[in-house]
Hints:
This protein is mainly alpha-helical.
Amino acid sequence: MAPKRTAASKAAADGGRSLWDSDEAEWRHWKHLYGAAIDAYKQGKAKALDSWYRDELIPSVKDRDPPHMTGDELVRLVEWKVTRGKFRPNLSKLAASNGAFLVQRTTERAFVQLRAIEEGGEAAQTTRLSVDAMQTLTSLKGVGPATASAIAAVVRPDIVPFTSDEAVQGVPGLAVKYDIKTFQKFMSRILEKVAALRAEAATSKPDSNGVDSDGDGCEWTALRVEEALWAHHHLSGMPEYQREGREDDEPPAKREKKQH
């Protein structure tokens, strides 16, 4: 069942201009506002866990030989997920009921599957190959497709986006459902968007090689596209976060006055 949308989320998702068909500069604008969105969300309650996920967990797991997650890390990742999104009180308890060895063995197997996928492949094929790893991860208690995508993104943020409700709602034609089929549709669409944003960045700045066109060395990845959608969902209804210099960022009444 799709989650109910609050008045605030409706204002963000419906009141703000859709991000999906915007140019790369607009996407970059919202990606850079991800930190501000996390700081503001739930009075900053998600900030510490989000920093842990991105700045500690991802590099720590990649440095292990072979890469894997611990039981404690799985529980904390679930806490990050429910703090950043819809609260589910029993999810952490379910995740904690998995034995430490089972978590290590299962995540290790899934990470091997994910790392075997070649970068730059066709979106639909990459998505199909990722499903095996997702099914491996969802064998753990408390791990559904959304949580599995967050785990998978630890080792393959380039191709696997976290399947957050906010990001799914930002993709035209998709509805929030917690199943593998929805994940497949979402991931395939996100990978297509990654390719389009990289191509646009490379065109606007030929020396960028697909790197984020503001020159910060930050290449578009599936996880960064999700960040932009998440930030847009939560902040797009607030005028102070709109990108300057765009006429279509102005309220309709103000634009009409200019035209008359």
